[in-house]
Specification:
Number of strands: 5
Mean pLDDT: 89
Strand order of the largest sheet: 2-3-1-4-5
CATH topology of the domain at 280-520: Rossmann fold
Largest sheet: 5 strands, parallel
Number of helices: 28
CATH class of the domain at 280-520: Alpha Beta
Distance between the termini: 54 Å
Strand content: under 5%
Low-confidence stretches: 1-23
CATH architecture of the domain at 280-520: 3-Layer(aba) Sandwich
Structural class: mainly alpha
Radius of gyration: 24 Å
Helix content: 55-70%
């Protein structure tokens, strides 16, 4: 969430010398060559190129290690690389020198948001807006993060403020179009995206917004325009990544599967240049977390969390569908992908200076209860609407043990879908900050980590943790929906069978799909045939020809 379009726009031009710098300049104290390096660093950050930015900044950092502007740019480099602690440390040092500078508060907000510290990030953006109410980039960032925290009314107000201040701010306009899409205003959203593309054909997120609408296939002219945009000098890496995913969706619609896969590979390769997923470290962390909660620790006890349903899974496994079904019930509010549970855990980790797996076993029941109450306080606005609310943050599958300890009366639903379909769907989806989706090997590793963690949770918590299999839900919806409601302690509501008629905001890649009745033809892997054999191999599945032969034999028998 490094707002490269505007964060660095106030850096003085490279022609300035120290003698020409105005009083209070952010570049005061730097000689001419250093200023040139700083400007080059900012330009590299604008393009999302951490390595190039680091190359330009290193000589300046060596001679000016404590300069506020140098530290601010260093924080941006660390953030792009996923080095969140180092990024926060650097930007904190910078802000301490310039506490009244709105640009520094804005950068602080972006660093904190990227690190997942959303409450602190929102406060930093609000501070930037207070210091300079006409700073459009701060309003954009505030709006984006408020959307992320499901505070959509506040988000829309902030984004509209940004567009008034800077009508040419494409980021704000894309975000507003995204809000229109998630509010089921498909025609309005489409027109908004098209207007942006007419002005800036290389705007990747506008193309991806159109792809997410799923209300109509791209035309051959659209494909040609996207292919041309990929070579536009104005396109940043962010644009190239989103463009590639949108182009792949269009090529898929046209049945050009090899070309679609090539476009996906190219986009994922561009994204991977920024940050490589450490599969081994992630797997070790999941193993350690599972071990810390096996056997289950003595938790909060009582009925804490009785009005909460957690839906957890890898992305693209049917969690949005499950939430939409539940949210169609008269007693249930669909809250969306809430960041609150991982934030509560992260705050406790920060307070202790230890990762979850190192303190979970020693946590007292009262300590777990305190964390549960903090979560319930953070999400109280949803509990005020209906007796039950659904938190469907997919990655919470990592924290089922903590959920059971903090909120023992909460219900946990684990959504599961065919591993090949899940993994390929993740590979085809444009995700920010999900670096495990970039290669087939990393996708397979992530799936295996989920699979063993889910099986462990189901074994440890029978009666409290339930599995919902997507393919079974599609094949036998009424019986599976009845079973689903019973698992959550809810009476049957016929409206759940007509979930696609429920009007609500849905902020997930499946937003448009859950507004349609269930359909069986949602699988994509067979269309790609043997092209996906490398992914099958990574997942330990039979190759395409053998899989089809085995299926034919099974059906014949």
């Amino acid at each position: 969430m490094w707002d490269v379009q505007t964060t660095h726009k106030n850096i003085e031009t490279r022609s300035l010398t120290i003698n020409a710098l105005p009083s209070g300049s952010r570049l005061a104290g730097l000689h001419r060559t250093a200023i040139q390096h700083v400007v080059a660093t900012a330009q590299a950050l604008q393009a999302g190129r951490a390595g190039e930015a680091d190359h330009h900044l290193q000589p300046v950092l060596a001679s000016n290690p404590g300069h506020a502007e140098v530290l601010r740019l260093l924080a941006g480099i660390h953030s792009l690389r996923g080095e969140h602690a180092a990024a926060i440390h650097a930007v904190d040092r910078a802000v301490a020198q310039r506490p009244q500078d709105p640009l520094y508060s804005n950068t602080l907000g972006m660093i904190l948001a990227t690190a997942g510290e959303y409450d602190a990030a929102i406060a930093a953006f609000q501070r930037a807006c207070e210091l300079q109410p006409e700073l459009a980039s701060a309003w954009v960032n505030l709006g984006i993060l408020l959307v992320r925290c499901m505070r959509n009314e506040e988000a829309e107000a902030a984004l509209r403020k940004a567009v008034v201040l800077a009508p040419g701010n494409i980021g704000a306009r894309v975000q507003l179009a995204d809000l229109q899409r998630t509010s089921n205003q498909a025609d309005t959203a489409s027109a908004s995206y098209r207007a942006i593309i007419a002005e800036r054909p290389w705007t990747g997120m506008a193309w991806w917004g159109l792809a997410e609408l799923r209300s109509g296939k791209f035309s051959p002219d659209d494909v040609q325009q996207m292919q041309s945009a990929l070579h536009d000098p104005g396109a940043t890496d962010d644009d190239l990544i989103a463009l590639g995913f949108a182009l792949a969706r269009a090529l898929d619609d046209l049945g050009r599967y090899a070309d679609a896969l090539a476009a996906l590979r190219q986009s994922n390769d561009v994204a991977r240049r920024r940050m490589v997923w450490d599969a081994a470290s992630f797997s070790a962390e999941i193993t350690a977390i599972d071990a810390a909660f096996t056997p289950a620790p003595a938790g909060a006890g009582g009925d804490l969390g009785a009005g909460v349903v957690f839906v957890v899974s890898p992305p693209r496994s049917g969690s949005t569908l499950i939430e939409q079904i539940l949210a169609s019930h008269a007693q249930v509010e669909g809250a969306g992908e809430l960041p609150d549970l991982p934030l509560v855990i992260a705050e406790e980790c920060g307070r202790r200076g230890q990762a979850l797996q190192h303190w979970a076993a020693s946590m007292s029941p009262e300590g777990w209860r305190t964390l549960g109450l903090v979560y319930l306080q953070r999400t109280a606005r949803f509990a005020q609407r209906r007796p039950v609310f659904v938190d469907k943050m997919p990655s919470n599958w990592q924290y089922v043990g903590a959920i059971r300890a903090m909120l023992p009366a909460a219900h946990v639903l684990i959504a599961r879908r065919d591993p090949l379909e899940t993994s390929f769907s993740c590979y085809r989806q444009f995700f920010n900050n999900s670096e495990w989706t970039r290669t087939f090997d990393d996708l397979a590793g992530y799936w295996r980590d989920f699979d063993r963690s889910a099986r462990n949770a189901l074994a440890l918590h029978p009666g409290h943790v339930h599995e919902v299999v997507y393919e079974q839900l599609v094949a036998d919806p009424e019986n599976q929906i009845r079973r689903l409601l019973a698992a959550c302690g809810l009476p049957f509501d016929p409206a759940c069978l007509e979930f696609h008629r429920t009007e609500r905001e849905v902020r997930s890649p499946s937003a448009m799909q859950v507004r349609k009745p269930l359909y069986a033809d949602s699988a994509h892997s067979e269309r790609y045939g043997a092209l996906l054999d490398p992914l099958r191999t990574a997942l330990g599945l039979p190759l395409f020809g053998r899989e089809m032969a085995s299926r034919a034999t099974s059906q014949g028998g």
